[in-house]
Write a structure and sequence with these properties.
This protein has 181 residues and is mainly beta. The chain is 14% helix and 40% strand. It has a nine-stranded mixed β-sheet. The radius of gyration is 18 Å and the shape is elongated.
Length: 181
């Protein structure tokens, strides 16, 4: 368990305690750094682009169960051109994303030691279009559930297309989810 430094403790106890969630995603096109703030924040020499309410991380939690906990990263933005779509839609299986919670000073600076909430091994990427925007969804699982080891086989449409080009079996999976057998 990480100990809380005096600087973090002082900011938490101050009347103007604010925090920011930051995400570092190891994407095939390069490291992507985002935060849920309304202005960009800098930490560890890196700029985290502000997504405000257009970015969301769900599924992070702590449990004593030994199970893979699904985590979803969702980023919405304007409609993307074909070149941007080809970059974003690159396979992400086995790549890692880290989620941090940083506390901000009154000057919107991140205190030097944010808390790491999760390391996530990414599985799949999905891009949804609609309402004049694209939404990029990255899904994965917390690496702690696998004792730091990534899954050896990923069952995804990308993997299936590599082994069996043109196969459409995964197109039917969404319709089969949550059905009782």
């Amino acid at each position: 368990m990480k100990t809380v430094t005096d600087g973090v403790r002082a900011e938490i106890l101050s009347t103007a305690c604010r925090f920011v969630d930051m995400v570092e995603i190891d994407h095939p096109s390069g490291v992507v750094r985002l935060c849920n703030g309304v202005v960009p924040v800098w930490w560890n020499g890196n700029k985290f682009t502000a997504m405000g309410t257009l970015g969301r991380v769900t599924g992070i939690g702590y449990t004593t169960d030994l199970r893979a906990q699904e985590v979803t990263f969702e980023m919405a933005g304007p409609v993307l051109d074909e070149e941007s779509l080809s970059v974003i839609s690159q396979p992400v299986a086995g790549r890692v994303a880290a989620v941090y919670r940083g506390f901000l000073t009154t000057g919107n600076n991140v205190i030097s030691d944010p808390i790491k909430l999760a390391d996530v091994t990414l599985d799949t990427a999905d891009i949804k279009a609609g309402d004049g925007q694209h939404t990029v969804v990255l899904m994965g699982h917390q690496t702690m559930a696998g004792a730091g080891r990534g899954m050896s086989v990923y069952y995804s449409n990308e993997r299936q297309q590599t082994d069996f080009a043109g196969d459409t079996g995964f197109d039917q999976m969404a319709g089969l989810a949550d059905k009782k057998v």
